[in-house]
Write a structure and sequence with these properties.
666 residues, alpha+beta, Killer Toxin P4, Chain A, Phosphorylase Kinase, domain 1, 36% helix, globular, disordered N terminus, nucleotide-binding, signal, glycoprotein
């Protein structure tokens, strides 16, 4: 059977090789939409006449901006406008043919619709009676995915995220081919990700980046763990695969693949086929070797298996994440104080360096935990499967005697609070970085609430639990040891409250009721803190202390909302800042039903055509009822997912946990 699968892979590689090199234009479109919201036109109307004239003078000699075309016919209310753009790696002839085909096909499929859009692999074409030149549109959209899964999802996702970030940065400023770029990144010696990213050339730098950021948000929904995928919006699109599907161009930022390809070049075609065949042969050989090794290892480990139960199977899987205690002790110089990153209520965090030079952060949990080994392993297994660029990655654990260690990726810039609440460091957080942090945290929460296999409620979202990597990308930490409905809890309430005063929703503080909307409340507080630069529960307004939420609400009502904003941000985008204040206030509504979910929040942050509802007065009761115990946090200065050691951390469900997360099966 293994041999059959290997030959199937070889055959697929051969087919793929020819697919990469053949450049015959696609006959069928990928997707189209006949837009309902703008209505229909009647036969022989002035709009139809203008629509028929749109491409009347279109030819190979029509002036264009590197494959981007802007058409217009007529004037006034009956004007017909169209925008078309082709992939930057196409020649002018293929682009011309694709646009002509798209126009004819769209007229046939949407005969009387005022607005419509169609996507081919080579081009995008849309028409309407409104002005769309320079307008960033993100709706409608579609996505497609490769049905094959990747073997190492974590490594693949990390590489894909890095590649998409680089391509987005390149595209937004433009390349020699307009707002189009291609590139690749190596995941393993035998696997490379190839991707292309494009924006419509009429978009501004911000419009392009915003559009692509919205598109990238859909990756966990459409293509998580898949070998390929594509997301297409009206103003931008991207695609990635594990085989190259585009022609090399000057806009290729590939740093791993050194092969060269000329457009429709026979010699290059031969090179590609030979290369792919070589990889296929190597994969065939390796797959058989791996099968032999796995069979031998399974036979060797079988007598050590403790139970022939479902739980035993989970332990076997968790064991693959287990580190040897001596290895971790050596990596941290015997847990020396010189390598200690911080001390929390549930243990210390140490910086470690593995033998290969890899940096890690090690959480050494308290030794008096009453949690069983099986439960500990199962929880580690669960959290290690959470994979998102805006979550700190749990890489493994160590369990030996009373020692329980959690091994995380090392995050170089430590926690957000060390920048945000430090007057000396705060200026480093300009508006672009703060906006990036807000959107990244929103995407991370959306994954926990909606896109992961289990619904996870963080319950302790705060600035000290947001870590910043070398590029200031935010990563949510301390969502850690998730529980599958402990015996003293239900899905909607708990008898033991965990979290941090100032961030907890009122229904959670007073009644123990929690939901995804509890995290939304905490996110709203965090957004307002990021905008203001001060802690919610230690907000200084002149000579007296005031709740940050009440201050934000008073200024919002008075029309002076910008008074809330850190003075160092006054040079940022006023519209973006005001929108974030608006979203922050919506998230901290006292009425749970009035708070948006994180899906809506993520959309609000990226789609400026979305109308925001007006906020009501936010909840202030947590300030008045807990003022006596609220003190400034003393969180860890850590590059790891370390516990906050603040004095305002309250009741704990399990002593060896940093904060408890709730997980609900879909």
């Amino acid at each position: 059977m293994a041999m059959d699968l290997s030959w199937q892979f070889l055959f697929f590689s051969l087919v793929t090789a020819f697919h990469v090199t053949v450049t015959v234009a696609q006959e069928q479109p990928l997707r189209h939409f006949c837009i309902n919201s703008t209505g229909n036109f009647t036969s022989n109307s002035a709009y139809e006449t203008n629509l028929n004239q749109l491409l009347s003078s279109f030819s190979l000699n029509t002036p264009n901006d590197r494959g981007f075309y802007n058409f217009s016919s007529g004037q006034g209310s009956t004007i017909a406008n169209a925008v078309a753009f082709c992939r930057g790696d196409l020649n002018s002839s293929d682009c011309f043919n694709c646009i002509n085909d798209a126009y004819r096909e769209l007229r046939n499929r949407c005969p009387y619709r005022i607005e419509a859009i169609i996507w081919y692999d080579y081009c995008t074409f849309r028409y309407t009676n409104r002005s769309i030149f320079g307008v960033r549109d993100v709706d409608p959209y579609f996505f497609m995915w490769n049905s094959n899964n990747v073997s190492n999802v974590d490594a693949f996702n990390q590489a894909l995220g890095s590649l998409m970030d680089k391509l987005r940065d390149a595209v937004q400023v433009g390349t020699s081919l307009g707002k189009f770029a291609t590139g690749s990144i190596q995941v393993t010696p035998f696997q490379t990700i190839y991707a292309r990213v494009q924006c419509s050339n009429d978009l501004t730098q911000y419009g392009c980046r915003s559009c692509l950021s919205q598109a990238i948000v859909y990756i966990p929904r459409c293509c998580d763990s898949k070998q390929g995928g594509r997301v297409s919006l009206p103003s931008c699109n991207f695609r990635f695969e594990i085989v190259r599907f585009y022609n090399r161009t000057p806009a290729d930022i590939d740093t791993n693949d050194t092969t060269t390809t000329g457009y429709k070049s026979n010699s290059s075609r031969t090179t590609i086929i030979i290369s792919i065949l070589a990889v296929a042969f190597a994969a065939l050989l390796i797959s058989n070797v791996i099968c032999i090794i796995l069979r031998f290892r399974k036979r060797k480990l079988k007598p050590q298996k403790h139970e022939a139960t479902e739980e035993g199977d989970e332990i076997a899987t968790a064991d693959s994440l287990q580190y040897d205690f001596n290895t971790i002790r050596a990596a941290t110089n015997r847990f020396s104080d010189a390598d200690k990153l911080g001390q929390g209520g549930f243990g210390a965090v140490y910086k470690g360096i593995l033998a290969g030079g890899k940096l890690i952060a090690v959480k050494r949990l308290s030794t008096d935990s009453g949690q069983g080994d099986l439960e500990f392993k199962n929880e580690v297994q669960l959290m290690a499967n959470l994979q998102h660029r805006n979550l700190v990655r749990l890489q493994g654990f160590c369990l030996e005697g009373n020692e329980r260690l959690l091994i995380y990726e090392f995050v170089h810039n430590g926690s957000l609070d060390k920048f945000l609440f430090d007057p000396a460091k705060r200026p480093y957080l300009n508006w672009e970085i703060r906006y990036k942090i807000i959107k990244g945290v929103a995407r991370g929460l959306l994954y926990l609430h909606q896109d992961s296999q289990l619904r996870i409620i963080h319950r302790d979202l705060k600035a000290s639990n947001i870590l910043l990597d070398a590029e200031m990308t935010p990563k949510i930490a301390d969502f850690g040891m998730a529980r599958l409905c402990p015996v003293d809890q239900t899905q909607g309430a708990t008898s033991r409250i965990v979290g941090t005063y100032g961030y907890m929703a009122p229904e959670y503080i007073m009644h123990g009721q929690f939901s995804v909307k509890s995290d939304v409340f905490s996110f709203g507080v965090l957004v307002l803190e990021i905008l203001n630069g001060q802690r919610n529960n230690a907000f200084q307004n002149g000579s007296y202390m005031e709740n940050l939420l009440s201050f934000a609400w008073r200024n919002w009502k008075a029309g002076t909302a910008m008074d809330l904003v850190d003075p160092s941000l006054r040079d940022g985008s006023t519209s973006e800042v005001m929108r974030c204040i608006h979203i922050g206030l919506l998230c901290v509504q006292e009425n749970v039903a009035q708070r948006p979910n994180m899906g809506s929040v993520a959309l609000m942050l990226t789609n400026y055509s979305t109308t925001l509802p007006l906020p009501s007065e936010p909840a202030f009761l947590m300030h008045s009822r807990t003022q006596s115990v609220m003190q400034q946090s003393e969180d860890l200065d850590s590059g790891a997912t370390a516990s906050s050691g603040s004095k305002n951390d309250i009741g704990v469900v399990s002593e060896n946990e940093l904060s408890i997360s709730e997980t609900y099966p879909r």
